Amino acid sequence: MIPQKEERRDRRREGGRSCSPKQTPTRKFSPATHRRSNARCVYVAALVCVSLPSSSCSADMPPCGWLLLLSLAALTGNTFCAITTSQTERNCSISPPYLPSTVINTTLRLQELRKRMLPLNISAYIIPGTDAHLSEYIAPRDARLTFMTGFTGSAGTAVVTQTKATLWTDSRYWVQAERQMDCNWELEKDVSISSIAEWLISEVPAGGEIGFDPFLFSLETYENYDINLGSSNHSLTSVPVNLVDQVWTDRPPILADGIISLPDRVIQRTWQMKVEQMRKMMEDSPYRPTALLLSALDETAWLFNMRGNDIPFNPFFYSYTLLTLDEIWLFIHTERLTGELKEYLNASCAGPLCVQLKSYDSVRAQLQEYVARPGIKVWIGTEYTNYALYELITPVDKLMTSSYSPVLTTKAVKDETEQRILRDAHVRDAVAVIQLLMWLEKVVPQGTETELTAAEYVNMCRSKQKDSKGPSFETISASGANAALAHYSPTNESSRKLTVDEMYLVDSGGQYLDGTTDITRTVHWGTPTEMQREAFTRVLQGNIEISRTIFPSGTRGANMEMLGRRALWEVGLNYGHGTGHGVGNYFGVHEWPVGFQTNNIPFTSGMFTSIEPGYYKDNDFGIRIEDIAVIVPKPTKYGNNYLTFDIVSLVPYDRKLIDTSLLSMQQIQWLNKYYETIRTLVGPELDRQGLKEEKDWMLKNTEPFVPSGSSAAVTSSTLTLFALVLTLFHNII
Predict the structure, then answer these.
(1) 149-183 pLDDT, tens digit each
(2) Which residues form a coiled coil (predicted)?
(3) What is the CATH number of domain 416-702?
(4) Which of 171, 210, 646, 700 is the most exposed place for a label (fewest CB within 10 A)?
């Protein structure tokens, strides 16, 4: 799956860059100024026409045509037949405004928010779309942007003043915003902080204060606002108590349970071993930090070998950790911990390996108390520490920073047990995906299935596998033109029927107690065009070329990312998203800081990453091939400490989309070896589960490839040799 994948950083920046494969020119929209080009054509949501011959009634007729038809009918005395057309987007330019049923009335919410802004002397209030841990996915109780606007897209920022309310989002969500927001809100078709700052400067009087919740700002986000507001005589005001929460009277509560410790069979290092490892890294640092502050949810979950269910698709729980050289402070909703968990954490003692449980909401006050002590220095990872905690660590000589905390960089390298069980999870996951592809191959020609039913089917298949804990993200099940949208997921309104005439892309993954999976396959059940076959094959070439690359340990993914694009570039094609991301062990499906982006850390043995080049033709089709790979040592003739990728996703590619004439001999050999691996690893698992039909399907689809033209070449050579022999024999005779 593509990080909305990249979007994780976009949300922290509240803009910066769009994740959509195709960049769309920025345009601004205001309900007050929006008008149709022909002012005489007024949209009528339900047109009633009575009596003309049925051939005269066309639902495709433009509005002016209907008005003319109505006029003519009135003049001639004809009766009418009823025709109804529906509008799915709001129209704020007519009176009364037209609002579709998907809109939420935000009038009272805005009134209450504005009341709370007044005593704080705030002229504007910024509402980001993230949580206090800068998470990629957020819990329903943190969906403040959605509560205030009605907009449910995964990227956006809202700003409210006493007279205006505006949402910024990228091109993927413009139509969705028009369908979900009422006319209290204006839409700015941009996501950059510079655009928001420009708007604030124009709307907020000089000297006005702009309020924000510092828990929802990353350091980078704050710095970008500060820079863009510059010398405009506007100041940012930190408001640690969230104003939206005060208005949100029916905000979803914290879950009462769901926190567990991992069983011994899936861990190699106890939490005590991990704590001592972190302390050793602190002691070895030349900057001599006295404490390590962990803010990202996966940091605390990894450190204590614990999991939760607070965040959709991610087994995390609300928490912070302050680890010192002789104390462990765990900030958590303590009422959720069972007696067994408290015993697991040694919560009843006071030694250096005893966890002191503190209220989740006390983290800011407790950190402030610790920072006030003499001789301390707090180590933070700037990528995931929110501004509410950062602003407390003063003066600067009490602060030590790195882009990522030592927990994140250590977690990125899987130990032997983690590597083994993550491989095992991918074998079982392959069974579920094979079941999906085989089923679709049989039922799609019947014309009964849709994008939604396919997504539901693969989730059902995964749920039957051992140690299944649900999907690792919302399945991207996309057919035809929908697949050209890289982040598309089907809804009841958008779901297309699957047909043999269109390409189909399915990007899905599972959470298992022993691992997290993410795999994309693109198929065609009919006759693909030559363009589709060529594009697919070139995407496959990119996947293979990265996978078979040998490189020195410490190489950055960004330095080899172009290998995934080269075959596409040769014919003027490209894709607009990243080429890969890290993957966790029953963690997030997008695990930073591993991957192919410039801000990712260098590759070392034991890391897992996705490899996922693609190609998207607007309004036609989309292609993506995604596999998860583990980085392993690779012996070479002369050098040591070289690495390569070992693919752990084990599902064959669609044979009819592969043009072997474009593949090199090395690429075909790699492909055949990969198929041998699928047979070796997945075959026994299919046998164990008694899935004979699925095994037959797998064997059929992993037959070795013969280089295009080689059969003909062999036959021609044989005939030539045979002719020479006959000629020689004839001459002898």
Answers:
(1) 999 988 999 999 999 999 999 988 888 899 999 99
(2) none
(3) 3.90.230.10
(4) 700
